[in-house]
Amino acid sequence: MAIIPGIFGINEPVLFGLPIVLNPIFLIPFLLTQVVNIFLCYGAMAEGLVNRTMINVSSTVPVGLGQWLSSLDYRAVILTVVCIGANMLVYYPFYKLFEKEKLAEEQQPLEQNTEDAIEVY
């Protein structure tokens, strides 16, 4: 449900719904992905792989279109895809840790309910 708003830069459903805000597991990748994106974009622009940005585009312009409009370079869209892939790689181990924690929480009440049911009989 958060993909369509996310395309237009409205990320609050994920930030507060997952939650990423005030979640110690996701704090590290939330900060680290920004650093990774900065280094990837600066490196690509410094090496001349992508044109430097010329104008500031509104943050609600859809992903890809905003990057193309700011630099008038189709390679900026490719760089955006590369950054999204790098972000996914950064988030993956933390997501698996979060998933493991949630699965353990899900199993805990089940085990307690089973023990309570055995005691009744």
TrEMBL record:
The keyword Chaperone does not apply. The chain crosses the membrane at residues 20-42, 76-94. One of its GO terms (cellular component) is plasma membrane. The keyword Metal-binding does not apply. One of its GO terms (biological process) is N,N'-diacetylchitobiose import. The lineage of its organism: Bacteria, Bacillati, Bacillota, Bacilli, Lactobacillales. This is PTS EIIC type-3 domain-containing protein. It comes from Enterococcus devriesei. Keywords: Membrane, Transmembrane, Transmembrane helix.
